[in-house]
Queue: 3 jobs
Job 1
Amino acid sequence: MTTALAVAMLLVLLRVAGFVVFLPPFGGSTIPTPVKIGLAMALSVMWGIKAVPTLALTLNPEITGNWMLLIWLSIRETLFGVSLGWLLGLVLVPIRVTGAYIVQEMGLTMAAVTSATEQSESNVLSQILEVAAILFLFGASLDHQFLRLLDATFTSFPLGRSWNLPSQDWVVNSLAETSSLGLAIAAPVGVVLFAGMVATMIVMRQAPHFNLFTFGAPIRLVLGMLALIWFLPSILTGMAQNLKTFTSFSGL
């Protein structure tokens, strides 16, 4: 019985640890490793109290005596937790696409800074929107929805047993819609900047001495700032809807 309890707790720990490693914003490189370990241990204890006693009673005796089977189950639980955390991490991708597109159209791509949750470089607007999204994530208690999804996996995909995997269409759709959602959020500002660029080119056509690079860049910057301020409520609303959409997976 002691061995079964230890195996059950190990499987719970591996699933939760893999989930925490990629869960935004805790999956970023800016979060200290001891914080990740402490969070994974705390969540494992919470779910372990709930799931381990029942799992230990129903666990296949072959698992505790077969090291190869135990290794396979450990790898499976780790990959499952990592995959779920990575899928939930897509919640921030449309927001980064929004900021990157607007910054590119405004001509501010040279202003690169370090991202708040990623090791790679980002831009100023993407970082601001990303921080705003994370604050909204905690303010609207959507982080609790992440934990509810993880809790639902213990019922839909029980530890140490075979799984009936649902349709993968929802995963493919989530991957395909990340870029389109980001562009849809940035569309109002993009339309204004495109119209400003067309008007600038028409003026340049009529007045050849009008230098596009000399006067066009400040005009794009001013138009982008004004459009960003004007459509900021629309952008924030689109970000909020995107967060709510990504935290309600139909596959679980």
Note: The chain has a mean pLDDT of 77.
Job 2
Amino acid sequence: MVEEKVRTRCPRCGTVIPWEGNTYRPFCSLKCKLIDLGKWIDEEYRLIGEDSPPRKEEAGEGRKKGS
């Protein structure tokens, strides 16, 4: 019996890649993985959920009086 290897697409660039033995899965490379991480850090991606109250810094409460 021939064993089928699981293949998937990189969510960043769409390249077809093997799932097993892929160090960067679900991405095809370190480059795609870091590009995706950068988008999360820059808040280009967002999760849908309830609105949270503004942080102190955003509401202006974090500033010192008289400055």
Note: The chain has one domain: 1-47.
Job 3
Amino acid sequence: MASSRPILASLIAVLACSAWSPRVEALGPVGDAVRNVLGRFGRDKSDWFDLVLLENDALKEGAVCLDGSPSGYWFRKGNQENKWLIFIEGGGWCYDERECLSRSRTFLGSSDAWPRDRPVDRPLFSADPKVNPTFYDWNIVNVGYCDGASFSGNVTDPVVVDGKNIYFRGARILDQVMRHVKEKQGLSGDVIMSGCSAGGLTTILHADKVAAQLSDVTTSFRAMPFSGFFPITPNFQGDPWFRVRADNVYKMQRVEPSLNEACLADNAHDHVRCFEAEHAYRYIKTPIFLINR
């Protein structure tokens, strides 16, 4: 029985992260099982999510995607008024300015490519109690990801790349999304913050900040990140390629002000460590349940 647990954990993580079906193509029999489950969703349009774009005050605050388009989230109202699941989309990082320019032309860098409504694309969002007995009737906020650095950057002036303005404003986006959900959607009560991959890392890095922002309307706040750990280790050739890229993202997007102050103080010799899940996790005060594969 114990030997099946890693497979089960992997399946759970894959199902939570399976918004885009190509991610499961390389999983063989497990991938077939995932696709079979995902194929049951999205048929009933009454369960779909509606896009909410943040304009007006959010735009004035500079909470915009890489290309300057409005940030936002998809929302589905549940039957339980005081139960909320906030799920942060993933999609990796962009590691330099030119790569961020390319990303700004895709759905990971521009809301211009976001559908105005979208189907249920993972069991965690299902409104069927047989599939999703815990969250089927919760209010679900699915936060769009378009900043390229796990909602951590905050550069005041746009960066000009090949004559085009690029905006690094992930921290502002996260702040304005939570403000909007609280003030316009009536968020209150029990809240779980979750996310996958880069969204899982967002949850680890920023759960305490979001909990503080929502503390006046919540009775409980917990975190449940999926696949948010990216070990900063050399590749098979001994090249510390990912650490070099993390360093660049950290500087390029001016990530430091978004990170945990206690972690930064304890790692004064290497602040980038606080942008890494395995170090940032130690400082989280929010009750947290980790799922990683």
Note: The chain has nine helices and nine strands.
